[in-house]
Amino acid sequence: xxxxxxxxxxxxxxxxxxxxxxxxxxxxxxxxxxxxxxxxxxxxxxxxxxxxxxxxxxxxxxxxxxxxxxxxxxxxxxxxxxxxxxxxxxxxxxxxxxxxxxxxxxxxxxxxxxxxxxxxxxxxxxxxxxxxxxxxxxxxxxxxxxxxxxxxxxxxxxxxx
Length: 161
Known about the structure:
Elements: H1 2-6, H2 12-25, H3 30-39, H4 44-56, H5 62-75, H6 81-90, H7 95-103, H8 107-124, H9 130-143, H10 148-157
């Protein structure tokens, strides 16, 4: 704790420049930037002023962050809507923005991703009993954040266990 107190506090202009670089590197949520500014030793009033400046200069956009987050987690990590929503809630994104971003997901693409993940996992399961195999597959897909009704539809329509 003593080391934290010894850290020199950044000036507001230095913090703004550093925060602009931080936001330019990749999309960030307001909470991530706020946490980083506090980590740099700024006071609450300065933090809120800098957040406001970053929004006005378009370095920080919660909507842009939400869309990038949803797109990345869906297409790259192959997460389902439930897990994506939880991740956004942890980052303190407003509920309305989360709902809008999730509505924008193309259902055909979403179902194709569920099928892709199911096929990949099905090939890895060594269980011979079809009931246990199906249970393991459904549990895995639910753990990835996919909805149960969609999991069951995909398994049924594609003759998976």
